[in-house]
Amino acid sequence: MKFKRPTEEAYEELQAAYDYYNDHLFEALLPPCLITFQREKRSMGYFSKSRFIRRDGVQTDEIAMNPDFFAVVPLVEILQTLVHEMAHLWQAHFGTPSRACYHNREWALKMERIGLMPSDTGQPGGKKVGQSMNDYVIPGGRFDKVTRQLLERGFAISWMDRYPSPYQPPSQPAQAFTPIGAPQPEQGDEVGGHASARLEAALQIPAANGLDVSIREVGDKSNRVKYSCPGCKTNVWGKPGLKLICEPCEMRLE
After folding, report:
1. What is the DSSP letter of 37?
2. What is the pLDDT of residues 27-57, one digit of tens each?
3. N or C terminus of the chain with fewer C-beta within 10 Å?
4. If you ran DSSP here, which 8-state letter would residue 227 be given?
5. CB-CB contact of 206 with 71 (8 Å)
6. Is 0.90 topped by the overall pTM?
7. CA atoms of 118 and 104, how far apart (whole Å)
8. Facing residues of 119 across strands?
9. CA distance 98 to 110
10. Distance between CA atoms of 107 and 100, rounded to whole angstroms?
11. Helices 75-94 and 6-25: crossing angle, nearest 10°?
12. Helix, strand, or coil (residue 100)
């Protein structure tokens, strides 16, 4: 059996998912785009219109996916991210987008029609429009039905980062597709230098399959020190040994 090279396998899977959802949710109207891997901290993906140009002048849009989270979120969340960005692509070509990164009513209505409920919290009851927007699966909706069919065919994302981001995934959608044993989202998870409880629990999924995956350690910050004003509590980060004064309080930062 001839194995595909990693680049071929990783990108062909995402392209296959794009084509599948284009056919089943967007009536095959969406033009081709360039799907990329990008590591935007705390973002699972983004859309950028006409971001790339070929040497003959042809332009194409970009949908970026963040592999930092592939090992620590259910597969459906990866697919939700892809379809979320496809809805932006649809609006860019067939609708009227608002200002950059704003999720307006037109986009929200399209998301509902394809079976994903916009929510700024990723949970029922959240705001449907806004600058930062998550979504959750509508039970029995179009995304629900066609995604179950896709997964029944054995679709998978084969490649994942061995050292996932230590930051909390940006969305916590209702877990309509949560596999048995997958962690439920927890409120108040710690974000920053140490893995949250949710991420630690999520690592049990690849570990159960014998995969060597562990949360990435935050880089060495020994060259950055936090200085705080005892008065107004203003914080500043800089190299060790600085002597800093808070001008309004006339106090040295500690």
Report:
1. E
2. 999 999 999 999 887 788 999 999 999 999 9
3. N
4. E
5. yes
6. no
7. 10
8. 134
9. 14
10. 13
11. 60
12. coil
As given in the structure block, the two tokens for residue 215 are 């949360």
CB neighbour list of residue 172: distance below 8 Å, 6 or more residues apart: 121, 122, 123, 134, 185
Q: Can you tell me the distance from the alpha carbon of 192 to that of 226, in angstroms, rounded to the nearest whole number?
A: 15
Strand 245-246 to strand 235-238: parallel, antiparallel, or no bridges (unpaired)?
A: unpaired
Element (DSSP H or E) covering residue 201:
helix 197-202
First-to-final CA distance of the chain: 63
Nearest to 163 by CA among 91, 67, 244: 67
Half-sphere exposure of 209 (CA within 13 A, CB side): 10
Return the DSSP state at 167. Answer: S
- Give the amino acid at 157: I
Dihedral-angle region of residue 241 (phi above 0 means left; psi in -120 to 50 means alpha; beta otherwise) = left
Q: Which helix (H) or strand (E) holds 89?
A: helix 75-94
**What gap in Å lies between CA 118 and CA 27, rounded to an integer?**
21
For residue 247, give both structure tokens: 């001008």
- Rounded CA separation 6/28 (Å): 28
Q: What is the pLDDT of residues 74-109, one digit of tens each?
A: 899 999 999 999 999 999 999 999 987 789 999 999
Low-confidence ranges of the chain (pLDDT < 70): 1, 166-205, 207-209, 215-223
